Queue: 4 jobs
Job 1
Amino acid sequence: MNFDRNKPWTEEVERNLAKQLSGFAVRQIFQEGVQLFQTGYVQDGEWDNGITYSARLPQGTSNYKVSIHFGFLPFSRCSCGIKGSCAHMIAVVCDALFSCDVPVFVFIRKHGLASVEGTPPSTSVQQQLAATIEVSQKIDMPIKPANPTLAEPQAAPVESDLPTTWDGYRKWHRQFEKNMPSYSQPIAQFIKWVDHNLLRTSLNWADEERKLLFSAHVWLYAFKLADRSFNHQRYAFDSIGTNLQTLLQEFNKTLIKLSSLTRDSGRLAQDLEGLCAIVGEYGFDYSRSYVDWMDIYRGLWSRLPAEPHAIIREKARLLEMIDSQVDSIRRVKALLGMTHMIQLEKGPEAATAYVEEYWHSGPSPFYGYLIAYSRSENWRYLSIWLNCLSQLVSKYGHEGDVYDLLSFWEPMAEATLSSDKFIEHLEMFMENLLPAGFQPYADVLLKRGDFKRWVDLHLAYDKLPDESDGYALVERKAPELLLPVYHRYAAEWIETRKRDGYQYAIAHLKRLQKLYGKLKQQESWNAYMNKLLERYSRLKALQEEVRKGHLVPK
């Protein structure tokens, strides 16, 4: 009986498929195909009528399309052009079996289709692994090839061995490390590996809450694998952001189910506290991280039922980390964690009082609060954090930080302020962000057409208007407002009593000449220059520069 997805997997089907496969591909081809499958090259697998399985394998600039006909394997095809069977076909065979919950490696090992210890990979596979290892060595990070041999999996956790302490949760993760030590691309393949190697361990557990807790820890471990691998994966078929978003969705769905199912608040507190401890271990000591571990950490603690003792324990753990690390990313993240503990314990007003002390990399580590309170429309808490961060950005930040804060302030203001109050409060908010917010504030004034305030802002911070993007608009709409600016700068440079100062003054005088011309006030310009030349008649160098600049009134 041939293999058919819609029919039971029996011993007879297994024997017949193994016999067909042994004649379909030589051992070396089979080994290479298994390694392609293990490294996650097979994508977009799809069944047709239960006997035909199609998929693609993107490699470099090529995108091989494979169709496996389980009714009669010689009918199978691959677009790589190799006559007969190829490693791409074997990889797709493995993926097809995997999609049907067949224990692929047990099947391969049992029927001797590939070496238990693994034969040396083909040249192309060797090159791929070498390139990955080379990247990891450059950044001093060890990396393991994805499942390099077909070793037996380690013993899985059992339901009777449930954790009651933080170390019990760590035991789970040590077991995860043994059963699935590395990440593989693409994300769809990786999630199948997570399900096959880790999630199914708890499939037959009777306690649904324990199963969900176990799943949450599995997804945290998956985050760890993905995060570490992204730093030295040269061959990435999916974007990092998409991969992490997929994992985050799975993790959040599991948390929601766990929170809704657990009726014992003490038990839920213990479960979430254990997850928080693991997040602290995975995310607090790693600088090159694509995962926002602090966001996950804060999200978990926000779900935790009000439990003062849990906060006290976590603060003690964080203090130990802070005291033991003089200057490291681990210490910075522990300080950020402490900020959140203070917020949970005493509220945002108390937490923001410590932010300046923990200000190491700008406001971005605190954006999680702004995002969360914006989504929940908790305008009071959002306002507290915005006021705190705006004060620090004004002293230590840059324009990009100002635009970021403004993107959170505007929706809050639109929801809480009347239209006649919006502009007034916007100006107050922008003024609090000066001097870092100089250009964003100038942009706001231009949009409102408040050219006088725009000019005054430049004068207050000693900025030349003609060096700003909005100068042409102001010159066209309100040139008279610019006259005092260039009168001032011209006079200041003349008073330096140096030739290079006179040359700068001439540049400003030429700008004045143009502005008077726009205003059709030639007589005023002539009167101004005559008075200036009379006042500084003894400054011969200035008189020479005026003549060279063709600024003597006619």
Note: The chain is about 60% helix and 5% strand.
Job 2
Amino acid sequence: MKDNALLLSRGLAAVPVLMLPMALGALWLALQPNAVSARALVIGGGVAVAWYLLAGLMVAQQVVQHIRIRRQLRRVRPVIAEQAGCAWIVDAQGAIRAQSPQAEQFLDMAGRDAAALLSRHRASPATAAQALLRRIGDGRPCNLPLQDGARLIAQRIPGTTLQLWRIEMPAPAPEPPAPAVSIPETGHGYRDLPIAILEFEPSGRMIEANPAAEALLGPVRPGSHLGNLVDGLGRPLEDWIAEVHEGRDNGRAEVLQTRGEVERDLQISLVSTADAQRMVAVLTDVSALKSLEAQFTQSQKMQAIGQLAGGIAHDFNNLLTAISGHCDLLMVQRDNADPDYADLHQISENANRAAALVRQLLAFSRKQTLTPEIIDLRDSLSDLSHLLNRLVGEKTVVTVTHDPELRPIRADARQLEQVLMNLVVNGRDAMADGGEITISTENVHLESGLTLNRVNIPKGEYVRITVSDQGSGISPEILDKIFDPFFTTKKQGEGTGLGLSTAYGIVKQTGGYIFCRSILGEGTKFTLYFPAQNPRQTAVAAPGPPPLADELPGEDRRTILLVEDEAPVRAFASRALRLHGYEVIEAESGERALEILDDAALAVDLFVTDVVMPGMDGPSWVREALRKREHTPVIFMSGYMETDLGSGSRAIPNAIFVAKPFSLSELAASVGGHLTAHPPRTEQAVPGPVV
């Protein structure tokens, strides 16, 4: 048993501080003997006497308390000496005053705070220790469960203010009798423990590792350094070992990575032993926990990037609508022979290229507008294969095979073609000397679900598309990043890093799954799963593009209320509609639109409005307006996907959606077709009551 007799110094440490005022006052009087009057000296002397009486009282209290605890410790020495396991005597302030022989041999804790006993078992050991001290001080015993089935048994020692804390280990399960085998005793008995333990010198040189530790680290050679086994502390490992050995560490464990062939994340706790030349490291494999933590962090990062990409794409779509729209207005006024026509055509083409890049951003953030339909992949890939073979060049061949009973899927045909083109282009770039890219389709029935790359696919009927190449493959450290936006291994200027992230966004938005498997030197295989549709279902033919307003039958001028907060977009749309013979009323906000519609005599044939605007958004002001003009058709415009229209609210009747950026002809076609489908009514506005 070892007790601590130095705790009295905590109270005596205040004596030099209390003596400091007297020393300063004496020095001042020696230098300035006439600076203070006799009355001031008397008053100062009285204050000094009171001050030192207070100091003496504080020190006396500390001495009396220490003497009382020392007497109580002498009385309870037999109690702690009789403890068979690890036990400690703790005072009311939480200081460890004494410990049992076994506790002293395993880990010398005398003089430390009782919270150190809970550092490996509780997230906030100091708080837990204070709660235990209060409970036991009130006379209530404690039985606290710890890790590995151990329990902390604590109670107040009768007749004293001291507490007895001891750790009770679970009884080992009975084992069937086995032939007696003589195993020599080594070290401190660590080899038989199921816990991974390393024993090493304060210099970091290994002494011994038990089998559980070697199962995590591989063979550990005596004399090797701990730094050759683990890495990733972020500071010299020797500094951490020295802090623990000298008692300057707070007992916090660190997570490090192994240096062996198999990389693991290990939580390592270092402790000193009674032998000053030996230290112990306790290892816990936390690889699964770190993997989950990394997945959660990656999910948060991807979500944040997706939100950012969606917002940027929305703003860019407004700019591109204004650029391409005004370019169309200029091109309408010129013919091909005009010298400026070629420049305007270049502006229009580059605006379209920028719009394609924005669509990729929206695809990654899953906020693009999709037009899903029932697709027979055999027909789609048959048409696409000719384009793919021209795309990959002469040295590469694209081979397509199908399941003869292949079921249809529901997807946006154009976006699905974009996904396959991105995967084929990646395969082509991975085969510098050419080769074969194989696209195969087949029906798959999952009876109990499937887990791939930690993603669960529910049971059901699926169509599987596989795109494989014979390229150089992808290294494991890069494989987890291939779907990240802007991540690319190509040279600068050869790729945007959006190809695979775009494919991932399109597949997920369609309700499918995409996985990648790659082996260095053998090639890469992308596997896509889409829910299979009933083969008896037939695709509903998409309506053809509506006729342009110029092609509509002659009729009276129709009135359109145009609501758009972006002035350039509003200017282009209003000019385009007026060129096609419409009367246009402009409003920069939903509130302004409702003010205009307060005029019951104003007849409006169509609402054309942006979706996302400051104040009232498009769906909100339209619902308010339709209370009095319930049959008015509506066209919504937005750079986001169509399902953003009033999500969670009732559907708006007679409404269609136009995605930004749109051209002059697309806007005119949408307006003309919608007005043709909804001819004007005799009474549009509901007049107020007649007074």
Note: The CA atoms of residues 168 and 609 lie 73 Å apart.
Job 3
Amino acid sequence: MDVDDSKPQATVGNAVHGDVPGTLVQSGAIRGDVHIHQHRPADPRGAPDRRVREADPIVLGVHPAIDAVGGPDVLPGYVLRDLDFGPAGLRTLLTAAVTTDGGFIVLVGAPASGKSRSAHQAVRVVCPDWWIVDPDPAELSDPRFADTIRPRTIVWLDDLKRYLLGPGSVSGPDLSRLTAAGRDTVLISTLSRQDYTSMTGPRDKSDSKSRRARDALSRASIVDISRKWTAAELERAGDRGELIRYAVGMANENYGPTEILAAAPQLADFWEHDEDPYPRAVLTAAVDAVRLGRTAPLSAELLRDGAMDYCGVVARGRAPADWFESSVARLVEPIFGSASLLEPVGGDRIGDLTGYAVHSWLDQYAVHKRRREPIAASLWHAVVADAPHAKDLERLAEEADRRGFLRLRHDILREGSRRGDESATVSLLVWAAENGDDDALRRLRDLADEGWRHAADGVVLALARRGGEDALKQVRDYIESNDQEGYHVVLYVHALAERADDFALAELTRLAEGGNGYAGVHQAHLLAERGTSEAIARLRQLAAEDSYAVWPLTYWLARKADDTAVAELATRAAAGNEDARVFLTVASAQRGDPGAMDALREEAFDPTSIACEELARLLAARGDDAALDELRELVREGYDQATKHLVRVLTGPDAVAELRTLAEERDPHAEKRLAEILAADEDEFRAMDELVREVHAGNAAAVEQLYSHYADGDPAQLAHLRRYGLDLDGRPAGAWPFRFDPP
């Protein structure tokens, strides 16, 4: 059977042409080949029928400028930015992409720093005759989308966060399909600095969306854009018109010229000082929805229902009948003829309104301001009710879990299960089973027997999280009795590695001897961590038999760093072992050789390398101001391991501000260290208050510290807290019933 989409609609013999709804059945004898001629439906947003030179920059996401000096132009003259030039400049990268097989370019900078305008100007100059298309996230994640793109097309992805973290969550392979050799397709995208740092920094290993986003960004050429203009840029601005001169004149330490053009001072003034309770409640609900990861347009129903608890009881009682409509009208009214606090989002047809979006600059400004403030119950309920996809509910359940709101998490998962989401049902049962509910565990086993795709995973995960030896033996027996492989064995190995006792070592050894290399790696690491003469003798034996044990052995030798260890490292390095060569340098640096530190710096060009990890560790161990400054520079350059070691040596009240900055990007190392320092405050009431505020920020480590404070050494109370969690105000929740409604 062949598929042919090139022929006109017709019906000849056994051929079927055109759109065929439902199921096609042929009765009677089939003679000869069957040909299905497919007619591709039109792209609902319109085929890529615009040339770059014809594309409206406002439609593509370039913000119109304020009308501060009068004049007919929506956009002022473009000021050439330093980022446009040079070997790694935007136009250099774009020229290379359009003259070869394509590419992927992302402009990264603060909101209202000129990212979209610079990107639009670049494509107009470099490739004005190319086609341009701006798909929505659902279209881009469809594997068939790549086949609809003509050669010589710019795929415009304004605000990449919508594509990487929104419903559908476009992956690196999705993007690579578009830029595959011979397609002549260039992806141009923008991303805020905060979102880029958050996506590329260290995150919880279970955060699959962040891993996918990080993989996608690793495939891109990154162009940084500053919110402040350089002296050369200011000089070039001199002849670009009165509005540009106005923006340059009004710029200050708080706002750059592009932020002046985007009405940022006026947006901030409304947020900080407006006292009308109804528009403020609606806008706060919108901002908090963004805090919870909402990327789709905010519906009127979500905003109306979500705003309720942001109004005091008196304001609610005095509200006029049109309080919501008048609030929205005020929030969408352009400031200086340009920016709106809330921006209407249109649909596929003129006059369609799909919802509202917070202005991109205000989005980041207000989210930062409200980061540690409580999210109202009315907003939680509204975003759950309005969640359009199962993945949205999954994300909201994760946000509730990070804050210790376990009753809320339970209710969100129940809603997902009610809607027929299999993964929500399994997550609900896993959570109950890992907390000792044997009925939930039995139900998981039953669903696995019925063929539910994730239920068997859930059985293994729930037992592994229980963590006791009996539970792990049940995992082992379940895997063996069901002939399970792959992911289930990985979960089991992880659980054993975390337990790290004699039972765990014996099981890892059994699996390794059975040919499981992953278990062998963890077995070797566990032996190195024990460091006893017996463990190291066994590790040497394994290293002689299997290469996976060499790294843990050389790691242990570098930590020991005595004459015998250095001699063994030198022998292994001379024999050509690369790990031994790097760890020999580490051991020499650890023994005080300054030349070895310089050599380690030369090796640490890759953020994921052994050398980078060890350089960061040694700098943290040194601990002087110069070492800490060097660590901070590594953090700014995106070296994840540097963050881990830096936060360990930050202490006292002076460290809190620095840790909060790192924790704002959801760096798990910074979150944990910040929670530890706050919990250690001698003023117990202040410690509790600060921990609660960190809970509202989504700091999972603060939740555990708060549990410890509330339990005050009582194991039964600690167990209760871990089972029932916190109320939305951060206080201990009472007991509540677990409910599972079978789908």
Note: Residues 277-291 form the longest helix (15 residues).
Job 4
Amino acid sequence: MKTLTDHQLEYLLSKTDEKLTRVVKELADIKYALDQSSILAITDHRGIIMHANDQFCAISKYTREELIGQDHRILNSGYHSKEFFKEMWATIGAGQVWRGEIRNRAKDGSFYWVDTTIVPFVNEQGKPYQYVSIRNDISLRKKAEEEARQSEEKYRVIAENCSDLIAIIDCEGTFVYLSPSHQTFFGDDAGELGTSHLLQWVHEEDRELVTNYLKEICAARKTSSLLEFRVRTNSGRVLYLETKGNPILDSCGDVKNLVLVMRDVTERKQWEQTIFHLAYHDTLTDLPNRRLFVDRLRKEVYQAKRFQSQLAVMFLDVDRFKQINDSWGHEVGDVILAEIAKRIKQCLGENDVVARLGGDEFTILLPHISGRDQVDQIAQRIRERLEEPLEVNGRQHNLSCSMGIAVFPADGREADELLKRADMALYFVKERGRNGFEFFHPSIEEKSLERILLENELRKAMEHEHFHIDYQPKYELLTGKLVGAEALVRWNHPELGRIPPNKFIPIAEETGLIVPIGEWILRRACEQNRAWQAEGYAPFRVSVNLSVRQFFQPDLVERVREILEDTGLEPQWLELEITESIFAETDNAVPILQSIRDLGVHISIDDFGTGYSSFSYVKHLPVDTIKIDASFIRDVHMNKESQAIVRAILTIAQTLHLNVIAEGVEREEQLAFLHAEGCREGQGYLFSKPIPRQEIETLLKAAEA
């Protein structure tokens, strides 16, 4: 049994806090460094500018207000061909980093050159949702290159005063000339550089790349594209150089020498590596996140198909981990998660991958396995290792885990299929009682008797209307006034009794019954709200959830219009709640949302912060309200990460003039935090659980009194 002393515990906790603090500081430092040294712009997936720093405004001579909302055609100088931009968009649209030099036109008509790096950020489907452009003004360098071709003497003067390293080499790669700046680049090694061969200094892994680059310039007899490569000094220091090569031709048109203009981009490469690491790793455990894991899995599946090998995917959940967080707090939970990650890694080989998906969920990739027996041994080793007691803060915690396993190619030949079936196997273990592991087998995919029974009874319930609606009130936090209610379907079976929504809603989604059920809920909620108004109660908005399947019905907008007309409810008193998963298909979703809003109906994003939407493009969505997911509210009174997320949501909502409601409010401390941060509305058991319409009427009467 591993026992942590108080000193070790304090050390672990401090390390966790230090890591989080360091990550935040690194991000702040990166932003500061970029703002101070580079031209920075952020665009959405269509190229619309969403952010421009001061450097961007200064060089373009446009104000920030003039740039935001425009695309980069506002800067188009007409210098580059359509093929140039077509190649650039093809590269970044494929999720790859693009680097190049662009000539832009400023507002006053002057031209300037920028060395550009465009980094795409992609969603879980591999599609870019925004681009970060880092540019540096290279106008002087471009001017220097042009003047160098016109006058060697003038070129030499400029070269000797340029911060970039300018070198002339012969066709064999031996240095003929080096600008004085080489002393800044190579320091104590500068004396040896002048009489040496270029490849002598190039990193051994990049020598073939550089050799081919020089051959390409000599063969084409024209300026080549930018090349990045590494050089290694005698002291072992590695520098990243960004290089542009130009041939010098003799009177016969043959290549005599090559001019290389090299810039030290080591710091930029370090920024890129830091940004990449933060984007693709979990901050608590430093493990790969879902995006990086899926990318690695797809590559390994490709290799397994090519070489006809086997691999395994494992889904792992820590059993009843929520009880640890609820009982002992998230700080203890975070220490335990970090230790769990460490223990899992200790059970794996050098080429195996473990990632944290979030919470207590981990995934494991085992490439190049010999068979199921090997996977069985690894799973058993992980299980035994996690079962070893862990002492935190003087209290012993006994852990267990559940694992589901899928093997390529027996259980699937695509990454998504393997992930899905490993997940199925995991839930099979959970339904069986947890604390174990199971390989996927076809019977897992078959429906259980209970599921078949529920599906049949669900169809009967639709025919006989065994459903009813409860309403959960929404309150204005400042005044305590009831301002709305959410309509929630309930099922009382005549024989099976009350069936919880989390049992029958997934079946309704899978079978398509959610569409008629959802329409029934919408009609009944509108009828009830209109009835309350007819009885003289002050009008308020009733919200109804729309499932993804229901949302993408071809006639959804007409159905909503028809129900409003049939019930006589004015559109402003209806709110439709949609989940973030709808925005996986943003291009299709936005026109539907806009059509619904054109009716006068309000739109709310449910469970905000857990799915596909992000701050970067929520401003483009036709919505009225953001509902902060209960998972962030649950510990907002004591968890700094949750507090930061909630503050960020409230800030962006205020900026975009969106209403915000916090769901899952259960404690006075949570309410106090939300009120202090300016959240307008709340919903949760602290105020009221979902209640029948009669109790809603009681609340309305009390409010009037």
Note: The mean pLDDT is 85.
